[in-house]
Every structure is written in structure tokens, then in C-alpha cells.
Structures
1.
Amino acid sequence: RNMSSAGPEGRKKMRECEGLIDSLVYYIQGAIADHEPNDKATENCVCILHNLSYQLELELPESYAQSIYVQRRNISNNDKTPGCFGTRSRKVKEKQQDTPLPEEKSNPKGVESLWHSTLIRIYLSLIAKSTRNYTQEASLGALQNLTAGTGPMPLAVARTVVQKANGLPSIRAMLHVSHPAVKKTAVSLLRNLSRNPSLQNDIAREVLPDLVSILPEGVPGCEVACETTASICYTLFNLTQGSSHNARLLLSAHGLPKVIAISINDSNMFSKASRAASVLLYSLWLHTDLHSAYKK
């Protein structure tokens, strides 16, 4: 577990170690099957996998882009592909929504397991069944890492979490735990998921009222809570920017007074949350059909 946080070279060596990732996944599967999701070894295994999934899209060899997660459309040869799972060019980003998702291997080995739907479901199971905060945080954090990029792999993981594995109820429950780091990581994961336009209505329907409910009445007084508040505001921004319906959901959940209260705090220490709230307010005002409702 300590070695897995030793930086890019350490992660690379551990990902390449034959049988290591398979063994970690095997152990966690056994713990879940034996109804033992709270033992310390399971926590260690999940924390290692969390660390090994960090910057995964950027750090994998280019060969994985060609052999496993290859976009299925005819993309111009002029488009460069600096990332392992897809290009960062605007042209491909515009096509990305129409690109079929990559095909999974039925029997993943080693590093291939890190983004496979089997492990995604394991993380969601641990989030739901474990009562260990570190295990919950590491499971959420691994999913946050896997959904952080812009290529086909993060897109595929996000769709698996939301649509195939029905993961939103488990993530939503983590918004209401008392442990600040677990809550912060759950919100960060939702922020990543909410960047995907095809998932925004599902996310808004399932968790938007919960996100509003955990917004403070003003800027919170500690750094972790301040960062969590900023992430909530940016998640709500993603969900409401292109949807008047979702903006109305925020309104009906009594979110507007909270967002206004957070936005007017001008203390430098908490400017991150205030700035995020201000960006959200500006975006909400662009829905001109809601102006009369806002004024009321």
C-alpha cells in the first residue's frame, strides 16, 4: 500500500508485476463473497488499486490504445493521439459522444482489470456494504480516478457506473455520511460523472436534491468542507447548464438561497467555494424562461 503511492515509476512497476493486480482483485472478491467487506486486508487491497488507477489513462503504454480501447469510427489520420485512450483534439471530442464504447475483454488480466466492469462493480459493492471509511473512500477514489480523463475509457467507466451497474444509489448514500473525506470524494466522483452530457439527466434525477441538501447555508469554515462545497457547485453547474428542467429541479429543492449565500462571501480563504457558486448563479440566469421563478 505504501509502495503504490511512490509516484509514476512505482505505479508502473506494480502494474507490470505479473499476478499482482489479479491477486488483489481475487482477494477482494473472496472477502465480499464471505460477507467480510470490513477487514483490514480488504482495505489495503482497495487502497492499492486506488493508487494504481491514478492517472491511468495517461500512464499506460500506447499499445493499449491500439489493442483494447480503440475508437471505432474513422477518425482522420491528421488527429494526434497523445493520450493512451484517445486524442485531446477538439475535433475528436466533438465526435466522442457519437463514438461507440470500446469492447471489454471477457477475461481481463493484470492492468486490464483496473478499468473492467467487474472491478467497477466490486467498488460499488464495497461502497454499499463496507462500513470502513478508508475502504469507502478508496473505492470512491478509484472510480474518481477512472472517470477523470477525456478518452473512451473514462467515458465507458462513467456509463458503467451510472447506467449498467446502477451505482448512483450507493454513491448518493455517501453524500450523507459524517466522514468529511468520504463525502468529498463522493462529490468529486459525481462531478466527473456529471461532465458526460448523456448521463446528466439520470444524475440530476437521482442525486440533484441530495447535492442541494448537503450544501451549507453559507461558506463553510474548513478547507475540506470548502472544497466539497465548490465541487457540489460545479457538479450542479454541469447538470443545469444545458437543461432548464434540471435548473428548475435545483430551484424546487430550495437551492437558490444557499447558492446566493455562498457566492457573496468574499474572504480570500474561501474564495474557491464563492467563485464556484457565482459561476453556477451566472449559468442559472442564462435560463431566461426561469427569470420570473428566480425573482419570486
Note: Residues 196-295 form one domain.
2.
Amino acid sequence: EFMQASWDIEEVQAKGIQHLASFVKDKSAFPFLLKCTGVITLAMKTHIDSLDLQVEGCNLLLEILSQALEQGVTMALDESVASCLLHTVRKHLENEEFLSMLCTLLMMVSASEVAAENLRKAGIIPDLLSILRCFLHNDKICFSCCAVLWSLAVSEDNADQAVLESAVPVTSAVLQKHLQNGVVAESACSALWALALQGCLTDSDYEPTAALLLDALRMNPERAVLVKNGCLALASLVRLSETAALAILLDSKGSGTELIRDEHHLHLDEPGVAEALCLLMNEMVQYDEVLLDMRSQKMEELLSEIKLQFPFS
């Protein structure tokens, strides 16, 4: 009430945010703090030029969201909150340090389907792509933005198809730049999978994207989630085009079928990985030429092995 009575006074908003922040460590205050997100974001939007207030507000929202995620509470932030956050993003596009924090916040917010949809409606995708282009070197920003892209593309109703298509080269650039950073590569692979699912790739994208995903698998073979999502992305590409299937077989850095075999043996106890590998192989055998090659490489043996390993799946 104190903050709402004096929207226009920056000092009142700053003191209010600081006071709310003092309750963060008190577990019993959490349900009440949850109700304050709208007040905090509106204070940030009203005093958009005050970087100190933006940073404190963002920190407080991160604390509240972290606790919500820990406790399994879904925070479906409404459209006004999404629009306030987007307003803040646009105002501070040059501030790398603050953007890094803000993108982490957006990633946490987008974990809720409703909030992700509200961010999409607010038109955040072009802003995410601009941020990625400007800060391709920043692993933290790339990780967060790709995670947000994944959330938005997965829940996408194709209303923004053209915008999503423009995300393909940017996401590929992130993966190329951070191939050896498992955390970022995992996030970028997930985003590419979602974009492939939405049919956002063109004929000229299939071969280079397949090669890039294979590189990501080779560089991070031990990361189960990356392997799973990378294989699902490859399966989506193969479903769309035989070019992608042939690119996997004839990759200049080594046979994709050998890579599939290696990944299975590395993740013998991971049903999610086995399922993704089977889905990929299932898409590949739809093409006669690819099927013959897989037979010659005795892939039936691998399939029998997987069947024995997971008889009830």
C-alpha cells in the first residue's frame, strides 16, 4: 500500500523494494512476497531510468522466483508483469551486466507456460535475438536466452513463424561459439530442437544444422540431456528431409551411426537417451538408401541391445 500510494516517488519505491527484500530469508513471508511481484515490476517500469532500482527489483524477483522453483510453486506472471519486464529489457539493452541478470530472470519466469505465452504475446522474441547477436561472447546470457527461446518455441502456436525462423541462424551461431561449453550447448540444442519441431528451418539449413548438432554431441558426449535433446533435434530434421539423414551418415568428422552407438554405450542407464536414439534411428530408416547403410553397419544389433536393456519401456 505504501508503494502503491506513491508510484511517482522513486525513493519510496526503492525503500519499499529494500524493505520487501529484508523478508526474503523468512520462509513464512514467502506466500506474501509472491503477491508482490506485480508491485515490484511496476515500480521498475515507472522508474525505468534508475539503474539502481532496476537492479534491486531484479534481484528481489530472482530471490522470490528461486524460492518458488525450490518449493515447486508455479508463478504464472500475468501480461502486465511480462510487459514491464520487456520494457526494462528494451531500456537497458547496452548494459551487459544488468542484462545478464535480467535474462536469468526471464529464463526462470518462462518456466511457467502461462508466463512464457505472455512474454511471447508481449513480443519478446526479436529482443532476445538482438541480445544474442550483441552478446554472443557472454555464456550466461546465451544460456538464458536459448532457454527462454526453447520455452517460447515449444508452446508456440505458429503465430510468430517468421520471427521464429529468424531465430535459427542466431541459435546456430550460439551453438557454434559455445560448442565446448556443455551448459550453453545443451541450452542451444534444446532451442534448435524446438525450432525444428515448429518447422522453422529451410532446405539450406538441414545439412549445416545436422553437422553442428553432431559436433555438439561429439564435444559433450557425457551430458545426457544434451545428447537426448541433440538427438531429438536431429530426428526432427531427418523427419523433414533426407538431406539431414545423409548428412548424419556422411559427416566429414566421422559416421553418425558410430556416434549413435558410442552414445548408447556411454548412457546405458539413461532411458531418455535410449528413447531419443531410437526415435532418431526410426526417422532415418524411412529412407531406403539410409536404411541399407544402417543395415550394413549392423545397427540391428544395437537395437536388440537397447530392447534387452529396457524390456518394459
Note: The longest helix spans residues 51-70.
3.
Amino acid sequence: SGESGAGKTESAKLLLQHIMNLCKGNSQLEQQILQVNPLLEAFGNAQTVMNDNSSRFGKYIQLRFQKNTVQGAKLSEYLLEKSRVVQQDSGERNFHIFYYMFAGLSSEEKEMYGLLDPSLYRYISGRFGTQDVAQHWKHKYQEVCNALDMVGFKEQEQVDMQAILAGVLSLGNVTFEPEESNGSVKVSEASQGWLKAAAVSHRKVLLEVVVPSPLLSPSVSCCCFLCADARDSIAKMVYGRVFGWIVCKINELLAEDVDPEVELREIGILDIFGFENFAVNRFEQLCINLANEQLQHFFNHHIFQLEQAAYREEGLPWETITFNNNEPILNLLLAKPLGLLSLLDEQSAFPQ
């Protein structure tokens, strides 16, 4: 637990390495567990104001043991900060993979995916980097490709994945304007090329999703806003599905090959996303901060309350340690039925 940049991800990686070393980590499986990190960081980490390589998702790694050797592992991912795909605050970047692609793809590959100059794309805020930074990203792109091969992505799957990511970037540049003849909304003439690049062969289907029926929209200006919102929602959903696809592939690779009747021992490592306080804190950041508060409460309860109760019970000479109890904060958000999240759930269930 801790704020962004405190060292949680690096500590988790060192802990994994240490466990593998204690297991005499020479097996292929143990090496693969260590090698999936570059892939997860490329798609799940980003530069924030506080940290150049900030985890924007939570991951829980379950290592399963038999006779002191790792027989399998499972990765669970939580709460990927998908809002970052479509919007970043000042001084921040989108997920690393977009920049790695621009730096690592050849000119021919960029042409194949329809990628233009990075400064043109709204979803990466027109910011790229210096030549030295681009060289570092190029190296990172190669690491990602190697990790994709190792995890078991076929060549065509890797091509499809990068086409999807390029499509997400193109989708961000699609804009909308009023249709003068009937008062509805259409994709602006200036962004027809971006729509074509984003949709590939499914332009009609994409249009049906992002441009609502004029009968459902109270005004043209509201309809333009709804279209932009639908466009961003699709981009976030698609990126989330790509990330989930990667995690599924990793779990297929790391699944244990043992007798199902044998009970395995397990070590679980939770690498949580960092606490941050931005100028504008969005819903994902609220959930991230709340998860950290819950972990802090868990530690407080075990370290301060249960431990000290055990010392008192055993009659040990002990000076009571006081601590800040954050339970009121958790109750404000999580209590049922009147916590903020319960009230939001209730309101969300109402029609319209």
C-alpha cells in the first residue's frame, strides 16, 4: 500500500525474484512468471505527475507450490484506469503502449495500421518526447514484442491487437456536427477519414453505436455531446478488452499442471495502484484511493488492534500505540444503505 511512486510495483517484482531464487528458480515456468512484467507494465502503466511508471491497475499474483517449487500461477487484474485512454491531465501521458508503438513500428507498419504523426492524435494530447526518450520507447517496444511471443500470441493476433490500438487512437479524432436537413447529428466531414481508419470494415456498425437516434436526443448540442461520450466509451471498453485478453493469455501460460486431487500451498502478492490526489480526481481515482484506505484499515486492525490485544491478554509489559482510525472515512463511502456508493447504486437503478 502507499502513494504513487512509493515503490509498490518494484517491491512486488523484487519479492517475486526472491521467491523464485529461494525455489532455485531455473524452471521455464518460474522464468515466465518473471517475464510477463514488461507486458503488463506496457499496457497497464502510464506516466503521471508523481511517477513516470505508475501502475494504473491493481494486480494480484497467486503463486502455487508443491514440494517447495512453483507449479503454477494465476494473475487477477482490478480496476484498470480506462478513463486514461481518452483523457489525461496536464503533465501526464496515456498508457505506455501507444508511445512504444509510435517509436518501435517501422514506416511500412505504421502505414499498414493507418498511423500518422503522433502530434495529430487527441487521445495522446499531441505530446510525444525527445529523441532519447523515443529511443528508450523503441527498446521497450521490442521487449513487449518478445513478451507477446513468449506468452503465446500468434503473429496474426499481434497484428490484430496493434490494429485495434491504432483504431482506438483514430476513433478519438472523430468529431460530430449538426445535420442541417433534419436536425440530427452526423460525423463531421473533416473526420470521415478518422472514422474510416477506426472502423476498418465495420463503419456502418460503428456509426449506429456512436450516433444515436434523433428521437432520443432533446437537442442537437446535447446529441453532439452524447455522440462524443459514446465514442469515448467505446474506446475505453475496447482497450479494457485488449488488456483482459492479455491477462487471459498469461494465465493460460502459467496454469499449473498438477494432479487436481493434490492441494497446493499458495503465496498471494497484491500490487495495488497508488494513492494520488490530482487537481481533478475522477471516479477511478476515487476507487483507487478507497482501495488504499481499505488496505490501510486492514493493516491497522491487524498490527495495532489485534496484536496489542494479544499482548495485553498475555500480560506483556506494553505501552499502547495510538493510531488514526480511518473507519469513519470508509463508512462514509461504503456503509449500507446510506454510504455514498450505495446511494449512487440506488440512483443508478432508477429509470432514465
Note: The longest strand covers residues 69-78.
4.
Amino acid sequence: TSINSMLSVYSETGDYGNVKVSGEILLNINYSYKTGALNILVKSCRNLAVADEKKQRTDPYVKAYLLPDTSRQSKRKTKIKTNSTNPEFNETLKYVISHTQLETRTLQLSVWHYDRFGHNSFLGEVEIPFDSWNFENQSDEWFVLQPKMEVATDVGLQYKGELTVVLRYIPPDRNLMLPLGQFQGKKSFKKGKKGDSHMPSGGILEVLIKEAKNLTAVKSGGTSDTFVKGYLLPDDSKATKHKTPIIKKSVNPQWNHTFAFSGLNSRDIRNVCLELTVWDKESLSSNIFLGGVRLSTGNGVSNGKEVDWMDSQGEEQHLWQKMIDSPGVPVEGILMLRSSMGKRKL
């Protein structure tokens, strides 16, 4: 079902290949670092193809997605212009997104002919990756419209959704200053002996698993029964494993569940890696992996040894560093889920 729903985004009751693509689109793209707003000013198109041969007319509009997210939340559209192959839109399509997230996205703009009684016709598209985009350049720019790219569906299928987490590292000296009540009744710490309820020693890493969005649906009816599992590598023993409760029948689950790892000094926090994986719970067979993230310094080294699980990149690395730089302060991030975690050498 997930593959079909992903493909339907690209067809969306539209026809491809009926019209020979021609023309260009004029855009002005700017980003505000202050507000996190990406503004795409769609100014105009020129020399569009004639979509309706019989009536010799084209009623164009422009549609946008921030790939790889092809969900409804990512879709933006302009108004329809009637009977013009050189339409003037002058409409701003807006997204609010952090700059680190934006660097992982590609803007897909497609032009369509609106057909009131049949299928809309595809008139061309342009894809603009933001990993190397120069946001200092404020000038208008013409882009040549391209025919439908087959690979776009593959790109979309790699998108596994996103996970929102809040991290807080409390160093040993600050830990002693916190009121005892703050830690009572939490099962999340490294388990001591029975009846051992003293204050956790050393520094503490708190991980609030808030929510996930656009997870893969693996059950009939387009849902999944999801939970998150966490380890602090290199320790992957059962004693340190953490799990959230299972949220049933949701591909946009909200857990708001905290994991806590104790006994971590400032040197440890640079040598460990927080691995979070999202799973679908199956009652009669193995659970199904839905995606994961790793948070660490990402330098490939732990306690002087080269390891392949210290491989955080982009926002994973950025969020971990932000946490280290702000002891005692919660830092929040939205992380793109990896489609595979690779082999860990422990």
C-alpha cells in the first residue's frame, strides 16, 4: 500500500506524456534564517505547451513538494490561470523549516493544466536540490521545464519519515544540584540491584521521544503499530535497552516518552552513540524495521578505536553537538529516518 500511495502522489489523477513539455518558469527563492521561512515566489511561466488541442487552450497552475516528503503537509499549489501559455502567477509558496533540514531537501515544482472534466495534464517540472543552493542570491531566475523524471519515484520511496526528539545532558556537577524527587519512580536508569534506589551517579542523558511523522504503513488498512527502541552504544546489552510503549494503528505516532541513561561524564558523552530505531510490532512474527537514527559526534572513533557506528551526519551530528554545547538545556530536533542502519561492529 505504501508504494501505491507514494506513486499516486506523482500521478494524482493526472496524465503524463500526453503533452510535449516546453517552456520555462520564473522563480525567486529566499530563506529567512531568523524565522526559518522558505519563500518560493512563483512569478510566471513562458512558452508552455498547449494542453487541450481541441480547444487550443492551457489553464495552468503550479504545484510544489519539498522532497523526499510527498505527504499532503508538504504540498503547495498556486491558483489556476485561465487560457494562457504565458501565465503570470506572482504567488508565494511558503514552508517553515530549519536550515539544517532544508539542506536535506529538494524542491520539486511541477506545472499542470487543469481539466475540469477529465485528468489534469502534466506540463513539465523542475527539481532544485537545496544542499548546494546559494540563498544569498536574491535575483529572479528562469528554469527550463523538464519532462517527468522516472527516478523521482525511487527518491520518494527512500523517504522513511521523520522522528522528533529532545535531548538533555546533565553533567555530574549539575546532577547533584537537582532535587531528588526529579528522579524518583523512573525505571529508565541503568538497573542497579533490587531495592537500590539511591540517586543516579555521574551525568545523565535524557532523551524525550516525542513523535514520528509519515512512517511506512505495513499493516492492511494503511497503519502500523509502532514503538521506538534505544541503545547507548557501545553498550547494547539488554540491561541498557529502552523502549517506548506501542502506539497502535498510526503512521504519525506521539509517544512523549523519556529514556534516561546515567553514569555519563563529559568524556563519555563524546565517545558514545545514541541509536534509536522505529519498529512495527508484529504479534506472530518478527517485528518490522521502519527506520532509525544515530546521534553522536560522528567522527568514526569511540575511546580511541575506529568503529562504524559513530557515523552520524547532518542534523544527527548537529543536534548532538548542540546538546554538548548547552549542558542542562533541552535541545529539540527533527531527524530524517535512515532506511537502513548498516552493520554495527561492536
Note: The domain at 24-144 is CATH 2.60.40.150 (Immunoglobulin-like).
